[in-house]
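Following up on my earlier message about NDP. Here are the inputs again, as you asked, copied directly from the submission form:
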Amino acid sequence: MAAKIIDGKAVARELRAEWKARAGCLRARGIYPGLAVILVGDNLASRVYVRNKVNACREVGIHSELHEFPAGVPEEAVIFRIRQLNANRTIHGILVQLPLPRHIDNRRVLEAISPEKDVDGFHLYNVGALVAGSAVFPPCTPYGVMRLLQHAGIAVEGKHAVVVGRSNIVGKPMALMLLEAGATVTICTSKTRDLADHTGRADILVVATGRPKLVSGDMVKDGVVVIDVGINRLPDGRLVGDVDYESVARKASHITPVPGGVGPMTVTMLLVNTIDAAERDARCAPPAETGCRRSPAITA
Ligand code: NDP
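Thanks, got it. Here's what our run produced:
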C-alpha cells in the first residue's frame, strides 16, 4: 500500500489564508492583532525560530514585536517586561522562546504571562483547561497535528492512538487532545518496555522523541496513520524525523513527511491562537457581512 502524504505545507497555506482574512476583519474594525516575542540569549536555533515566527506574523497581518535580552539578564527583568506586556492592550499574545538560560526558572517566567495572552498554551491555567477538556490556547504543535488529521479526513473517535514521547510541549498535550477527541490513548516513553508491541497496535501513531528513525516499518501495522513530529539534523546535514519514512510509508495509509509535515503547522497554529486571542479580546463575532466566522471549537 502506498501511503497518502499529509502535506503540512499545503494545509498550513490554506489555514493562513483563512486566518489572514480574519485578521483583516479585525483590522477593518480598528483592532490590530499583536504578538510579543521574548528572546533571551543568543541561541542560534532560537533566533531562527523567532525570525520565522515574526515573518509569519507579517504574512497574515499580525503586528509583532521582538523583545530581546542578553543571556545574563536577571529573571526579574524578564518577568517585569512580561507584566508590562500583560497590561498592553495592543498586544494579544505573548510568547517566550524556549529554552531559557539555566539561571532563569522557566515555570516562573511562563506563569507571569496572563493566561488570556498565553498563545503557546504553556501557562498552568491553560494546561489545566486542556486537562479539563476546555482548552483555551491549545499548545501549537499538537493543535497543528489535530488540524492535519482533520484535514486528511481521519476520524479519531474510537481509534487506538499511540503517542511516543511525553514532553510538556508535545507528547502530553497531544495525548490529551486525542483523548478529548475520543481516541483510546497509549503513551510511550523511553522507559516503555517493548515499544514495538505498542506501536504495532496503533491506528494512529504520533512520534515525538527527537530520536532519528526510532520507529521502523516492522514496528507498525498495515493501514496505520503516522504523524512524525520529530525534527533531527543528521551529521550529513539532512533533516529527518523520528520515523524511518521509507519503511513505514510502505505500510501506512497516511504519513507526514519531514520536513513539510508537522513543522509548518506549529507556527501556523501560533498565528491562529494570536488572532483568536484578539477576537476574544474584542469580544467579537465578526459581522456576518464580512463572511468571517467565529473561532471554531477546539477539537479534532
Ligand atoms: P523532549 O526531549 O522534551 O521529549 C522527548 C520524549 O521522547 C521524552 O518523553 C522521552 O521519554 C521520549 N523518548 C526518548 N527516547 C525514546 C525512546 N527510545 N522510546 C520511547 N520514547 C522515547 O522532546 P520534544 O517533545 O520537545 O520534541 C520531540 C521531537 O519533536 C524533537 O525532534 C523536536 O525537535 C521535535 N519538535 C518538533 C516540532 C515541530 O514543530 N515539528 C515542535 C516541537 C518539537 P522520557 O520522558 O522517558 O525521557
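One observation from looking it over: The first strand starts at residue 4 and ends at 5. Hope that helps, and feel free to reply on this thread.
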